[in-house]
Write a structure and sequence with these properties.
Strand content: under 5%
Structural class: mainly alpha
Radius of gyration: 31 Å
Shape: elongated
Low-confidence stretches: 158-166, 358-370, 401-406
Helix content: over 70%
Number of helices: 23
Largest sheet: none
Mean pLDDT: 77
Number of domains: 2
């Protein structure tokens, strides 16, 4: 019984140590690691290499996969590059197996563990900031090795207590399914590899059975990316599906060829079963990688055809695809979402004002103008406002320690403040037009020539300004402060001229005073709306050069 508890204690320490090591490496890498992933994936071979190196560095294919999902979902990384990273991470995760097989079962743990525990524990308790993260990495490594040592010792005890005859009758598919299920539960193929190595070390498993366990673990590790990509942006679902398909194809090929691959390893004169198992793991992942690399582009195109974009009538388009904790990607997604909100407000206002423009596309619109009332559309915009603001606050709250230094935290807060100004201004612009919608309908249907002329004068200036705003919102157009200033001056001059003319009409009482008063209000609110949109564009334009 003691051997079983020792095994469980070792497993717990190993898993806890791995989590701490992963956390520490993530803190140390921070935004620089994320930027490196993005900038190092501009072609298939580079994206695969980045996936291998990134996973070897942070010791977690799940972490690399989730970060890649965030970047692909935010539109920062193309799908084809994301596929390269996640399939490369499969090979990168085999590094853990080599480390455990060459050191974990060959070196006396006490010699390494106690100095690491002492240095890591003291450093984590006494140091701060990045130095504390380094200490956490040392402590995590120590706990990982300590857990491995307990597992190794318990395996020798358990080997004398368990009957191998009870396992020998099971086919290899049972071992594969066991590895798949357990890995999906604990979310770590490295832990399953460690368990397989420990059992192999204690003669509890044959090499083919251990190999089947590892294949199952390789397939089970896709659960993390699959859960991360099942909801949200279409690009995320495509990448998650790519990860599952790649692993499924490679693992099926590995399973049906399991004895042949082991014969190749034996031919290479790898007699140590521990090294043979990790060599098997690396061999089938490398083979799968080489088979897929030439077809990554075609694979990506096929996924775009198979996984269609879903229309979400009342949801955001970008920020739901990116965890707020991945600061760089989150800020990119926030910028895209704010731009989209401003574009929606432009469409909303133009619809209410009756302004038509053939250059406008409605592909990204979350609502159909013909099916939603003014109030429904405005309610939708208010809902988006709340979601974006909540996300922006979460980004600021969960920003990486690397960005929480005084100067960098100020920059991040300053950027978020500009986006908040843009959001509030855009919603105010929509409210201004919504409030005069009934008046606009009334003047559109008016048969009084003088009223029609005055209203046409207001609309002529409004149409001209909105056409300019549309050009400013074009994806390939830089928002220039001088042009916004010029637009505001033009809009303000037009408002004053129209107001003065209406006042003149009031003095001579040539038109009904109530209608003239309403026209004054329409003139004021259309200007207020344009002014608010200019403010929103100015706020996002100030961030263009900082991204």
């Amino acid at each position: 019984m003691m051997g079983l508890w020792q095994a469980l204690a070792g497993l717990g320490l190993f898993l806890f140590g791995m989590k701490q090591l992963e956390t520490a490496l993530k803190l140390l890498a921070g935004p620089h690691f994320n930027r490196w992933i993005v900038t190092s994936t501009n072609q298939p071979l580079r994206s695969v290499s980045t996936g291998i190196l990134a996973t070897a560095m942070v010791q977690s294919s799940s972490l690399v996969g989730l970060i890649t999902l965030a970047f692909v979902g935010a539109g920062i990384m193309p799908l084809v590059n994301g596929i390269g990273v996640v399939i490369g991470s499969n090979l990168g995760t085999t590094f853990t197996g080599w480390l455990v097989a060459t050191l974990g079962f060959k070196v006396d743990m006490g010699v390494m563990v106690y100095p690491l525990l002492g240095l890591g524990g003291l450093g984590y308790g006494l140091l701060k900031n990045k130095s504390q993260a380094v200490a956490l990495a040392v402590l995590g490594l120590a706990l990982l090795l300590l857990g491995l040592g307990l597992m190794k010792d318990s395996a020798s005890v358990l080997s004398g207590q368990l009957s191998l005859g009870a396992l020998q009758g099971y086919p290899l598919i049972v071992y594969l399914l066991f590895g798949l299920v357990i890995t999906a539960i604990i979310q770590s193929s490295s832990v399953m590899m460690m368990l397989a190595l420990s059992a192999l070390y204690a003669d509890l498993l044959t090499l083919p059975a251990a190999a089947a366990l590892v294949i199952g673990a390789d397939l089970g590790t896709t659960s993390t990316v699959m859960l991360g990509g099942i909801q949200g942006a279409t690009a995320k679902r495509r990448l998650a599906l790519a990860h599952v398909i790649f692993n499924l194809v490679v693992d099926v090929l590995a399973f049906v060829s399991i004895h042949w691959i082991l014969m190749v390893i034996a031919y290479l004169q790898i007699s140590d079963p521990l090294l043979g198992l990790v060599a098997f793991h690396s061999f089938f992942n490398l083979t799968g990688l080489l088979l897929f690399i030439p077809f990554i582009g075609t694979f990506s195109d096929w996924l775009e055809q198979v996984v269609k974009t879903k229309t979400h009538p009342h949801s955001v388009a970008y920020i739901d695809a990116v965890p707020a904790s991945v600061t760089d990607a989150a800020m990119q997604a926030l910028a895209l979402e704010v731009n989209r909100l401003i574009a929606l407000v432009l469409f909303f206002n133009m619809r209410l004002l009756g302004i038509k423009n053939n250059t406008i596309t409605t592909e990204d619109l979350p609502v159909d103008f013909r099916q939603h009332s003014t109030l429904e559309f405005y309610t939708h915009l208010k809902g988006l406002e709340g979601e974006i603001i909540s996300y922006a606050m979460a980004v600021q709250r969960m920003s990486q320690p690397e960005t929480s230094k005084a100067n960098k935290n100020y920059v991040l807060g300053h950027q978020i403040d500009h986006y908040m100004q843009a959001i509030r201004a855009a919603i105010y612009a929509a409210k201004s037009v919504k409030d005069i919608h009934e008046n606009i309908l009334e003047f559109d249907q008016s048969t009084e020539k003088s009223i029609q002329q005055l209203y046409a004068t207001i609309m002529k200036s409004t149409v001209r300004d909105y056409q300019f705003l549309i050009k400013m919102m074009a994806a390939d157009c830089e928002i220039l402060p001088d042009e916004l200033d010029e637009l505001k001056v033009h809009a303000n001059n037009a408002r004053r001229e129209i107001r003065a003319f209406i006042h003149q009409q009031m003095i001579h009482l040539k038109v009904d005073a109530t209608k003239l008063s309403t026209l004054l209000n329409v003139n004021k609110e259309t200007y207020n709306s344009k002014s608010a949109l200019i403010k929103a564009l100015r706020a996002i334009g100030s961030q263009q050069h900082k991204r």
